[in-house]
């Protein structure tokens, strides 16, 4: 298998980690591993640039395997209650490489399989060629999560086929939440209800406002991610946050006031709001 530096001719991959927060308590549950490419001239290249290149040049499996190994190695240095989530592409699963990468990463890092979540796209659970590797992953004792739930309602019935435990609500629905009514609120409420009826936990991504937190708590969503809580952190900062004592608690109330020039700090982790960007991310946070 090619080494990490062979994936692109110039630069090297790096991981950033976005916190996943318990919406009922503000407690840090884990991190989503997000890959970037550190180019010496262009800086950090987002997945929007990196992933199509890796796919077209036949390097996506090697890249995803590196992400798996690095994420597990970093997570091994966190307290036992903090999890890590890593994305696996459909092509990786079809080639039966995801379970092999996870097996090797867990062995080399010493990470408990119960602390690793593998995320797949919603359409992947309906892909018969990926099914064998999904079952192999489940057999390792890792958790399985599905991304972008709600974009293809026809696949909801597949979520229990491979011991899927977590459903991540697509950020489009979160961005359009309205306090009282509205289509996206209705869709989000329906997703939470269906997932809970299937004994699945829910993760809401792309949270940027306190009002969204309040609505998601009212609808019963379990976990949140987004710039309201924190931007993706470099590995060193993620490690510092994971190991902080006493454990940092994120503000999860609608009364929290945020502005582009003011941080909020008291008994909560300092929250500095970020601006939107167009980066595509791989991976998701898992409900712990």
What does this structure look like?
The protein is α/β, with parallel strands linked by helices and 288 residues long. It has a single domain, classed as Alpha-Beta Barrel (TIM Barrel), CATH 3.20.20.450. It contains nine helices and ten strands. It has helices at residues 47-56, 60-75, 90-94, 98-109, 131-139, 171-175, 183-197, 210-219, 235-242, and strands at 12-22, 28-39, 43-45, 83-87, 116-121, 143-149, 166-169, 201-204, 223-224, 233-234. An eight-stranded mixed β-barrel has the order 1-2-4-5-6-7-8-9, surrounded by four helices. Helix 5 links the parallel strand 5 (116-121) and strand 6 (143-149). Helix 2 runs parallel beside helix 4. The chain is globular and about 50 Å long.
Concise overview:
The protein is of the alpha/beta class and 288 residues long.
Q: Report the sheet-strand fraction.
A: 15-25%
- Overall mean pLDDT stands at 82
What is the CATH C-level name? Alpha Beta
- Taking all Cα atoms into account, the compactness measure Rg is 18 Å
SS-based structural class?
A: alpha/beta
What is the number of domains? 1
What is the succession of H and E elements? Answer: EEEHHEHHEHEEHHEHEEH
> Which of globular, elongated, flat, extended, rod-shaped describes the shape?
globular
CATH A-level architecture: Alpha-Beta Barrel
Give the CATH topology: TIM Barrel
CATH superfamily: EAL domain
**Helix count, per DSSP?**
9
Which regions have little confidence, pLDDT < 50, spanning 5+ residues?
1-7, 255-288
Q: What is the strand tally?
A: 10
Could you give the distance between the termini? 32 Å
Helix content: 25-40%
Largest sheet data: 8 strands, mixed, barrel
Strand order of the largest sheet: 1-2-4-5-6-7-8-9
